Amino acid sequence: MRLFRSARWLKLALLVSLIPASSYAGVLVSVGVAPPPLPVYAQPPCPEPGMMWTPGYWAYGDDGYYWVPGTWVPAPYVGALWTPGYWGWSGGLFVFHRGYWGPHVGYYGGVNYGFGYGGIGFAGGLWRGGVFSYNTAVMHVGFRGHGYVDRRAVERGFVARNSHVAFSGGPGGIHHDPSPGERLAERDHHTTATRFQTQHAAAARADKSSYASKNGGHPSNGAVSRPLGNGAHGASASHGAAASHGAPASHTAAASHPPAQTHGGGGSNQHSAPASHSAPQSHSVPASHSAPPSHAAPQSHAAPASHVAPASHTAPQSHSAPASHTASEGGGKHK
């Protein structure tokens, strides 16, 4: 037994040494079972300018995987872009790499989370003169102005367009090595999730109905307009509400419907989870991110316009084969 435990910890130590610095955000979680497919859901409209979309994802708790809904959060500083966390495969385990804020969108495993996060970069918008401008080809915006339409950026960002697979590497996972741009983004100054995001995740973890063991991998709230645990949540988006409308027109961001962003794809991508270890292992890992800038939501002052990494992806991928995405950005997940 002691020999087994020693070998297990040696494997984890080696695994930690291979993880990029950008992944060190406090606690590293490794699990022996693959996360469920990404559910299909519609994106709620952006409630106000300066809010940034953070796609939903599967996290792991005491009762297994639970869904953290996609939501709009205030940008922590002007020029900030969110790189989503993702489950990767290493040493026979599924390891969660936490997301972070930075001037560019980095590597997130090629997972298609939808709504501008198609697997490579982000096609949901960019910073212009200290103000965030939304690409309404894939973003659902509930107010006028602050918008443009760029479908080509969306098309360039897919790794596995119709996939609902929620992890990278390993048996049945997405296979995408970091692009040159994603490698460069690793050298940026990164900051960890904001208090809005951490409270949101904590509220999802406390909600028993968010666990896959209870909802069968189909959470009732695929997304909410505002973070859970922070007062009003706004309208929630059901996982099955994949919008079928096309991308909003011209430069007015007032879209009557969210662009068709569903996690769905066409084929069946269900994978049985290779289970080497059932219980998650939490390991303390030194945090390499410095504290986020003190200023809160985006100000009107000029900020370095960050060039969005390649196109965005669609919503989280489910093990069931993703439904076909629309031209704007597919993915039954989010668009």
Which keywords apply here?
single chain, 335 residues, alpha+beta, five-stranded mixed beta sheet, disordered N terminus
In short:
This protein is an alpha+beta fold and 335 residues long.
Hey, roughly how much beta strand do the residues contain?
Answer: 15-25%
Radius of gyration: 18 Å
Overall geometry comes to globular
Helical content (DSSP H or I, runs of 4+): 10-25%
Q: How would the blueprint of this fold be written?
A:
Blueprint: H1 2-17, E1 27-31, E2 51-54, E3 57-61, E4 64-68, E5 71-74, E6 81-83, E7 86-90, E8 93-97, E9 100-102, E10 125-128, E11 131-135, E12 147-148, H2 151-156, E13 167-168, H3 180-185, H4 195-206, H5 212-215, E14 223-224, E15 236-237, E16 262-264, E17 281-284, E18 331-334
Parallel strand pairs: 7-13, 11-12
Antiparallel strand pairs: 1-8, 1-17, 2-5, 3-4, 6-9, 7-8, 10-11, 14-15, 16-18
